[in-house]
Amino acid sequence: MLGLLFAATALIAVTTACSEGAGTAAGATPSAAAPASPAASPSTDTGCPPDVNLMYEALKATPAVFDEIDKSVTGIGEPRCAEGWSTAMTVVKNADPLVVLFRYDPATGKWTPVAVGSDGVCDGAVKVPETVQAKLHQGC
Question: Higher confidence at residue 3 or residue 51?
Answer without folding.
Answer: 51
